[in-house]
């Protein structure tokens, strides 16, 4: 899948180094979540390998990689379904986002400001939507494409 940026720019997926580094980030993230008193309650019994793989596939697709989540795991509709009714609080959202930022460091993802700003932008957006969609009685769009994220206002500087 092409990125959403100007032609010639690498996708965020390519810049990250492909699926393996994203899997590493998600693994580091859920290892932290399992030990986190604010977040572990969402995953009674721990976070399965299957769950970790699905979430890594979601991130890969959003960042411009292969469309595995849409083709094999149910796409936007499945992702949405998993969050309905979770009733995520703002404090839990913040911990989730901060923990993912730490996990990006744990996994030694590229640390340049442009890449990190872009993925944190997606994280902030996605977690805030997750809070809204998880509220009791929420009526989010039933169908939507899997989002695509790009570099936004700060692509890598090419001198
Ligand atoms: C950028 C933000 C987020 C992304 C990209 C994301 C992604 C996903 C995806 C793709 C799934 C489904 C995995 C599958 O298909 O098996 C999922 C499930 C889940 N997510 Fe999120 N999520 C986000 C935010 C959150 C937040 C803020 C929380 C809670 C604090 C949360 C808690 C959960 C839980 C508990 C499940 C599993 C539910 C179940 O198994 O029934 N997520 N997430």
From TrEMBL:
Q: Which UniProt keywords apply?
A: Heme, Iron, Metal-binding, Transport
- Note the superkingdom of the native organism: Bacteria
InterPro entries attached here?
Answer: Globin-like_sf (IPR009050), Globin/Proto (IPR012292), Hemoglobin_trunc (IPR001486)
The record ties this protein, via SUPFAM superfamilies, to: Globin-like (SSF46458)
Q: Name one Pfam family in it.
A: Bac_globin
> Per its record, how is this protein called by name?
Group II truncated hemoglobin
């Amino acid at each position: 899948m092409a990125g959403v940026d100007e032609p010639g720019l690498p996708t965020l997926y390519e810049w990250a180094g492909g699926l393996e580094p994203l899997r590493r980030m998600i693994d580091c993230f859920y290892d932290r979540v399992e030990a986190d008193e604010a977040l572990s309650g969402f995953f009674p019994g721990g976070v399965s390998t299957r769950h970790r793989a699905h979430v890594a596939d979601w991130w890969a697709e959003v960042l411009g990689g292969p469309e595995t989540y849409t083709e094999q795991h149910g796409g936007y509709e499945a992702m949405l379904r998993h969050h309905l009714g979770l009733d995520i609080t703002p404090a839990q959202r913040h911990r989730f986002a901060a923990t993912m930022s730490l996990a990006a460091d744990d996994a030694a993802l590229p640390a340049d400001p442009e890449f990190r700003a872009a993925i944190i932008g997606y994280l902030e957006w996605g977690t805030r939507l997750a809070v809204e969609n998880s509220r009791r009685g929420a009526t989010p769009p039933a169908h939507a494409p899997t989002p695509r994220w790009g570099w936004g206002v700060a692509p890598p500087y090419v001198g």
